[in-house]
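Researcher: I've got a protein sequence and the SMILES for adenosine-5'-triphosphate. Could you write out the 3D structure of the bound complex as structure tokens? I'd like something to compare against our soaking experiments later this week.
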Amino acid sequence: MNPLGIDVADLTFHYERHPQNVVDHASFRIEPGSITGLLGRNGSGKSTLAMLMAGLLYPTSGSVRANGQPVYENPGLMANVCYVSDSAPIFEDEKTRRTLELWEASRPNWDRDYANELIEAFGIDVKKKPSRLSRGQLSSLYALLGLASRCPVTIFDEVHLGMDAVAREVFYTSLLADYTKHPRTLVLSSHLIEEIESLLDSVIFMDNGRIVESGDADDVRSRYSDGGELAHLTDVLLKMTFSSNTAAAYRILQKGRDHE
Ligand SMILES: Nc1ncnc2c1ncn2[C@@H]1O[C@H](COP(=O)(O)OP(=O)(O)OP(=O)(O)O)[C@@H](O)[C@H]1O
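Model: Sure. Here is the predicted complex with adenosine-5'-triphosphate in place.
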């Protein structure tokens, strides 16, 4: 299957018994075959939006479509839209090899050789149960599952946060190399903005459930530049934070700057 585009239209979501909108009237398009960063502060709604995009949550209102089709519980899309986080389905108490077999059976584009290459690069012992892997090894396993699945849409929701610097570098390098050979639509949700910045074609910034910036990564960076060099995406996030209602964070950052 070719890479899929995603259209999100006026999407709103709140959790049961929590009336506040966690995703609030979001609209944007993700181009097929692009790498998009889903960025924002803790609790801004990234994971919720990512799960809505993967069809794992039903919108309160609005829609998410992949190549024009609604994603929620759509059997035709389930195998092609892959959401990977630290709650992805694995057999915790069986050898890791079993989880790889499960994913291979359910992902039509699974590449076993690529999976084996990643197992070696990440140093994952597939004879161990996932519950016996270290935090970083477990994160690497999730990353591996997402990469080797080669789904037309793959959403990595902060899978790499538990990895050490070398494993993260392996993840980014392998992701880019494999994406170049097998183009697909990738979404990366992350706090480690500086590390993933160079990978991104486009960005979506969230704040309190709202999309406060989105579009081509360089266009967004240039909108936040004061002339000269392009602003880093972290600067964009900081500027957004300053302009949003997070007065306590602002006060701490401002005090730090006054001491410099
Ligand atoms: N199952 C749930 N029930 C009720 N509220 C929830 C649930 N999951 C998340 N929330 C709330 O929704 C908001 C957004 O959470 P979400 O996990 O989507 O944010 P995030 O940007 O991914 O955060 P982080 O970067 O810290 O992982 C938070 O206020 C959170 O407390």
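Model: The chain has a mean pLDDT of 91. The two ends are 53 Å apart (CA to CA).
Researcher: Great, I'll pass this along to the crystallography team.
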